[in-house]
TrEMBL record:
This protein is an aporepressor. When complexed with L-tryptophan it binds the operator region of the trp operon and prevents the initiation of transcription. Belongs to the TrpR family. Pfam families: Trp_repressor. Residues 62-85 bind DNA. Homodimer. It is found in: Cytoplasm. One of its GO terms (biological process) is negative regulation of DNA-templated transcription. Keywords: Cytoplasm, DNA-binding, Repressor, Transcription, Transcription regulation. It comes from Haemophilus paracuniculus. One of its GO terms (cellular component) is cytoplasm. The gene is trpR. The keyword Metal-binding does not apply. This is Trp operon repressor homolog. The keyword Transcription regulation applies.
Length: 102
């Protein structure tokens, strides 16, 4: 029997974001992420930051980024595809924060 994925209630994400904002306001981010994310998940987020940073710099091809970060081509492609979905002003803000331009 095929299992069908049921999307969870979008309010759950909003609740998580609200809790995250409280953790920021109360300087509890490290504890927050240690509670909600495994070590592997935290590592994956770190890799995602490196991927987005490298893609935004534009100094290397996706294949070169893949090899430098020792990850799959699909992972790099997912990062590249996500960049195309966001408002250019937001991407410019992220680029500034990640690449020291802001």
């Amino acid at each position: 029997m095929k299992t069908v994925y049921n999307q969870r209630d979008p309010q759950e994400w909003l609740d998580f974001v609200a809790l995250l904002k409280q953790a920021v306001a109360e300087d509890k981010l490290d504890q927050f992420f240690s509670l909600f994310l495994t070590a592997d998940e935290r590592g994956s987020l770190g890799l995602r930051v490196q991927i987005i940073q490298s893609l935004l710099k534009g100094e290397h091809s996706q294949r070169e980024i893949q090899q430098a970060l020792n990850t799959s081509a699909a992972t790099i492609t997912r990062g590249s595809n996500m960049l195309k979905q966001f408002d250019p002003d937001f991407i410019a803000w992220v680029n500034g924060k990640l690449n020291g331009k802001a």
